[in-house]
## 1
Amino acid sequence: MAAFDEMLPETSGLRKPYRAYDRWLKEQDPARLTQKMEDAERVFRKTGITFAVYGEQEASERLIPFDIVPRIISGQEWRRLTQGIEQRVQALNAFLDDIYHRQEILRAGRVPKDLVARNEAFLPEMIGVRPPAGVYTHIIGIDIVRTSENEFYVLEDNARTPSGVSYMLENRETMMQLFPELFQQIKVRPVENYAQLLRQSLAAVRPEGTKDAPTIAVLTPGSFNSAYFEHAFLADQMGVQLVEGQDLRVVDGHVAMRTTEGYKQIDVLYRRVDDAFLDPLTFNPDSALGVAGIMDVYRAGNITIANAPGTGIADDKAIYSYMPEIVEFYTGRKAILGNVPTWRCSEPDSLKYVLEHIHELVIKEVHGSGGYGMLVGPAATKKECADFSAKLASNPSNYIAQPTLALSTVPIMTEKGLAPRHVDLRPYVLVSDRIQLVPGGLTRVALKEGSLVVNSSQGGGTKDTWVLDD
Amino acid sequence: MLLGRTANGLYWMNRYIERAENMARLVDAGLRMALTRTQDASEEWTSVIISSVSDVAFANKYSEYTAANVTDFLLRDISNPSSVMSSIETARTNARMVRTALTRETWESINEAWMALKRMLAKPIDERELPAVLDAIKRETALIRGAFYGTMLRNEIFDFSQLGTYVERADNTARILDVKYYVLLPSISWVGSTLDNYQWESILRSVSAHRSYRWNYDATYKPSNIADYLILNGRMPRSLAFCYRFISEHLNLLADDYGARHACHETSTKTRSLLKVGSIKDIFDAGLHEFLSDFIRDNTRLGNEIAQDYRFY
């Protein structure tokens, strides 16, 4: 399967967005570049940008490998992506509002009722609740893959608590430290105002009646969480408190944090804790990560929770397959960004097809994430396929299947020079009274030759993503 | 505005950084004494262990007070919560927890110290490498302090950090003195004997004050001067008076900022006035050991009061 290389496609020559970079690269001494690769690793270790890998006791803190070759997107490509993303995000929020109120899309029969009603990500507690400013999902990561010059697909929507934005920012910071001269020669649009935009965006969705400068805090499960670095990073960059469940309690109908001078009210909580752990009184009673009673405060309209509880129903992989219908239903237009064709294994015909073609397909758990519990058919052994078929047949509605896409490649720097590797892209979207994107995102790259799995927990790395100012 | 949990993290982060450095200093003094004396090295190592407040844990693990056992226990052993490795690990865990309160330079210096020491203390230390390892520990903590003083805003974050440093340091100095208080007592000591000279030097070395002592007092060691230096001298950065000068200063800054005084202010004021007006003769007359025991107890109480008054938990 020949993949489209974004720098140097087989059919045509060097692509335009890469011209200036290529010129610069050819002037570089290979030894210097090798040195820069080592410098990059040192920078990351020193800053402590690590992530924890679940199930690996030994290396509890690891680095996500960083590749020094940027992934470059032209201004024109970016504009097109932006339109598609904005449309999709608008639809996601409209869908959530509908699902928790009138459920018109279900009545119209465009999305099966059962799929929503029997979905774990659907929170009955949210029925009839309208979040401050009417926004459900405030911070969204849309995973996009490319298969040719003009074909982009949305692989996944992340409407709960998308992570990775700190890597987008630190990757750029690192590149500017390593290659300041490159940024003089090539006009790359900046991403560093992300934290500022995030703070403004969160402030804009404060509860009604709150003062103009609301108190914002980031809620983390704690320093042992795999994304703790990012939580601390964002709180720091925004200049707001980083709180844990143990710091919070409900005081006089508001959520408040324990400070050295007593309890202080919080107006907007950017939570990086899953729904189930948010409120032990409403959800998982064993949770020590959340705040007892926060859902009552929320329903009373006295705090903004970003993202709102229950947004998972919009990024569920079973719902995903209906996104083209959802986009059309709420925006009245065809989706600008396509979906990857998806077989829902809950449907008998699809299941039959999937079982027969398992060695060609990618099969994912409906609620899975992080690349866990999935099967990449073409890369799997006969036995792995057989084992997976058995799992699939015993619980079909837990799975969806997609064709193995020829994800585009971008070169990485190896000891033997440039070598193409598959990539995806996660731009980050902020929703308040408007929709905003910083020009860029997180490019994840499968570092193993031929591999299509880009997840950091499965040996993926990252690249700086440049959107050109052209 | 500062979270109580963050104040707690800052306080303990600094206590543990200070502790790591003090452990290295103690081992350094022990090593020096063991090298310059042929007999009774085990006695010196015993008092090193007692000063480090880990005598019970040590005795549970080892029967002999040898250089190898003691250095391993105080530098590398992670079952000893006050060993250098444990201290740096705890300091970093706290730093990670309060990361948003620290400048990038401060966090990186702690993270780098942790990486360096983890590597250095991974395997038992070869006797020949010990001086270099001790130097490296002191250098790492000095770098942290440099980054901290050079870049941190002088606000409540700074105040809670400093409180941790000085409460820990005061405890450390008081314990070193208390372990050897008897060699400072005039009734038993006879001036000029080699034994006493050696013991006194050991005390001064434990707080890296053997050279500065000569600048401030005399070339010969005199017990009342040593006690004066480490207890009452406001210019000596490891003396009890010095520690309490800064503890009071930072508690007062907090009181001004927050507009409220608490039990901890009363305790620190009381201790400080004792150290300010007291003469070393009065302290000796009333009993050095009693003075030090009271001090250690009050200092511990102060730590608890700070935690309570500022809602650490």
## 2
Amino acid sequence: MLPLSETVTPADRNELADRVRRAAEQGQPVYPLGGGTNLAYGAAPSEPGLGLSLAGLERLVDYPARDLTITVEAGMTLATLAEHLAAEGQQLPVDVPYPDRATVGGAVATGAGGPRQYRWGTLRDYVIGLSAVDGCGTLFSAGGRVVKNAAGYDLCRLLTGSLGSLAVIVQVTLMVKPRPQCSALAACPIPDWDTAEHLLAGLVRTQTLPSAIELLAGPAWRDAPSLGPLPAGAVAWLAVGFEGTDAEVRWMLARLRAEWGETGATVAATLLDRQADPLWKALTEFRQPGPERIADGSCAAEIRVLPGHVVETVRRVLKIDGIASILAHAGNGVVLAHIPAAAVAGLRSAFRASGGSLVVASAPAGTTRDVATVWGPPPGGWTVMQALKCRFDPKGILNRGRFLVADGCR
Amino acid sequence: MIATATIPLLRELRRRLGAENVLGAPSELVVYECDGFTIEKNRPDAVVFPRSTEQVSEVVKLCARYGASIVPRGAGTSLAGGCLPVGGGVVVMLTRMKRILTIDLRNRMAVVEAGVPNLELSRALAGSGFHFAPDPSSQTASTIGGNVATNAGGPHTLKYGVTLNHVLGLEAVLADGSVLQIGPVPDPAGLDLLGVLVGSEGTLAIVTKVWVRLTPNPEDYRTLRAIFTSVDDATNAISDIIAAGILPAAMELMDQGIIAAVEEAYRFGFPLDAKAIAVIEVDGPAAGLDEQERRVETICRRWNAREVLRAADPRQRELLWKCRKMAVGAVGRLSPSYCIQDGVVPRTRLPHILRRIAEIGAKHRVRIVNVAHAGDGNVHPILLFDERDRDEVARVLEAGREVLAECIASGGSVTAEHGIGVEKLDFMSRLFAPADLKAMRRLREAFDPAGRLNPGKLLPSECGASAQT
Amino acid sequence: MSDLKNPGEGIDFGLFLDCVHCGLCTSACPTYTELGDENDGPRGRVYLMRQVAEGRLGLDARIRKHLDLCLDCRACETACPSGVHYGRLIEPFRLAVEEAEHQRSVVKRYDWFRQLVLFRLFPYANRIRLAMTPVRWLQRLGIYGWMERLGLFKLVPGRLGHMVTLVGPLVDQGPKLPKFLPAKGRRRARVAFFVGCVAEAMFRHTHWATLRVLQENGCDVLIPEGQGCCGAIHFHAGSSDGARKLADANVAAFDLAEIDAVIVNHGGCGAMLKEYGLHWHDDLQPARRRFAEKVKDINEFLDQLGLVPPSGRIEATATYHDACHLGHAQKVREAPRRLLAQIPGLALRELPETEICCGSAGTYNLNQPAMAQRLMRRKLENILKTGAQIVLASNAGCLLQIGREVRQRRAPLVVLHPMDLLDMSYRDAKPAIASTPARR
């Protein structure tokens, strides 16, 4: 998917920095490569350039488990990270699709965040330190190894989600959490959209602590893993995830049933631990569907609105495309929709007007993927972002054409 | 004396904002020469009280035209000199922008102007079932704008995170006077400017409006106080609780010295012979609390806790938290002056750093008492002195420096929540390599190329020297 | 007596050093909360006073303005973790300023209003009563009510006009107080009652209520002759000598040996009496200190004694406003609430921002009417939020200030002293509450 003229795999960060420095001298574009699981995100670059693989940087640097922090090189996969953490009864509570291939650096660069962001936040909330190489080939570090740090600017935040446009991330220090004893998903079929909003509004005041609040609609969920077919007459599933000790999860499930019972909604399925895994996986992967899972000419759009506008948003999407598949992280106002690429522009202007936004999270090869189509009109603070790009990557070699462009740098 | 150059600026400010919103006389400027940090002082050239974002923008544009620097200020409770008008300039007070604009429970969000005191929002939320989670000890006075500028923490940071984790959106005036709105709906099409602005100490923009996340009140609490006969036992217990995978809402430490001060001020009934008290709060669904409480107590007992007591009722809990939050101010009862430090170390290094603090105090003959957001590894050693004793002042400054150096050596940082301000400028180059600082400098230049927003703070000047005592 | 160069130079410097400049007091200060300027907050004022005392700053009109705007409500003392005695800074400082200006004859020592109204009129109950005669006549003729509603008192010049509007409607104040009243039932204590000036002139009915409550609680009550004004008005207006003379007259009037306590029922007077021992350093200081130690606020006293529960039901919703000089200066907060909670049928609701001054603050409402009005409006809004039918305060100034606002806004509220209500419960009388409660 990337126009790579060659690919190198530096063995360490210094070699990597050297490589970037040389590319900068020649004005050669550099495309950092992690696991390649999210290449369909962002604009498609056209200029050939250097593929910079992080596969050589996959070491565990430091894991003081009792501090609940871990430092790893950026090329480590999320599965390997999870293994290290699991050995100490810990986890990174951020869902990243295809963890066998996806790398820590790639996840940080794309600012990953899945269904469990309702309780746990996104990866942005876990990066407490990092090292990176800027567009001049200079290695720098930010943050540290403590969970609370107010020294200087938070460059970790700046780089998380920057899509490799400011620097190549080579090492990351993460805050981690104890692994919950138990997890569960409870799902309820939704008869109509007004009921959906009613239940979602009710969940704002629930006494339980949901980890995820998910709304599932459309053909992709026709036979949702472990849930089975959606009962006739229902428009969607509402699934709520819980984590905690056995006692806590049991109590929360009972409590949810009671709260829903008052409104007439019934829990049709309760999935515990392993049983829930396939559904968790599907919820996580929906944003980055493989080509086999998305209709021809469709893309995955990520729409952001206020949580109170989720149901309205879902209805609007369905009005434009009645057979769209939709997953909403409803508690956070994230609506993911598999829709025809042609519908993007129309939907986008509709959400912009109400303070929302739409980006194309995943577009298959063959569709138009220029900066304007993928990202839409420039967001607030665009001039500052451009100024940042000019200062961190004055030659504009990093991920050229994918996100920020270094046009007009002095 | 008023610098002649500021006279036309003052005239212009008065014309735009109204005379009642501009101070220019030396006798009225003097109280703005410092904040909660009093070691350095400098009088501003003017103080203005804008009442709207448009007025803030006008002030910024005027200052740009006259080349004046700008120092945003809320309640002025910074302990690092964040509001010190280094080299004069115009202090922009946000205290007349203090409306709570919206409380929107469906979206778990409130919209407030920057000058709203932190606690006022929580008061306005009373009975709603929600609260604003960041609870810095200054929360009765400090403003939400100020909390955003310093990314303020507090005891409940341990479970609920710092201010950044509770900010959904910002309206801010940039160095050129333009107004930027980020959020409240996150836009993935761009860099995380919100994350960068929070904690930037007023050096990148002036925050005028904040969309904050509201947190549901936990169903129930258990607030425990464990009484220890040695500081070492207490810190080891705290370290073990974290390592055991228990996540209390807050885990605080007070040593014997601070207990004495707090007891004098608030008469809680703490045992004065205790060497350390850990205040540990667990919260959440009631179903899980007995279990958490039992595990916490077991670990405390394993580390020889003499007693583990539960707050009897909400009133006692409230008083307990008041004692903890007012502890620093209460130290004023122990000595005429004090200097509070804000170091942070990896949590397992907590026993080590407190031992070292005691040694450093002994070595320099400085009395040091301690409070700590211990669960986060965040220590607040308080060094006591009499400002009239010059020799003692010198020893205190030296001991303070040594404590922070020890934090760095232990893999930590020199500030967890107070910020760098002017106080810790010298430490930036010890904490960060030149390339790291350069990256930060680039960030600042991207926002404020002329360097007029809160100059002389957060980053040491390029040559490494700073305007320090 | 002063040959000191700077006003305030004589103040114990340690009191300034108590302030560690943390700023936690600011949000507790009514004027800072209203204005947002640190010059109008406690930390700023302490800083200004220190600058002047140290001679780093000359006392100019601007600084005076900020210091004059201080209510001396001492809410900052409650908020201060470091234990700054703010009252002991601002009060002597104000005295020093007055003295310095008198010596330099920069301004007239006191303007006519202070001279005549504050010093000649206020300390004397009989003169106050005499001065109120015209107003009382207007009331008897039924004209006062509509003059107030039409705002005609605004035509009365300045501060005098404000004073006139403070005078409440006619109530039966009861006869002159006797010298002695015996305990009912078994005698539990023997106390002496402090009468005061404004309180005696305008709240004699509350005095009677207080005395009856004391009797009900088994107290012999002496009302010594020769006592007078507590001196707070003089002291806070900058006349230390005048205040001292009144204090010494009071100290002489009470025979401490034969009583368990000196009872005072208004917070402002009580705070002054309790601080007699602090203000003047001369031969009589020990005697003043002994006197001060015996002074007890009525709420505090009854709470400690253990209230004989009243039995008359009062089916009403009430809220209690903490008078600054009772709450902040004397730290008496829980006692009145505990007493009121024992009235059968009474529902007590917490008042939001109860700790913020109502703007009365002694004679502040006469000297700084604009700020006083802002604070009063804020107070009434908060009172209305509670939905209470009765608002209670244990201080004359607050009762007058809140009472006027209630009348002018025609709020459906009855303004009472806690002793008024307790007394009603003992007598099985009912307050004249509006049938529809105030809006919530």
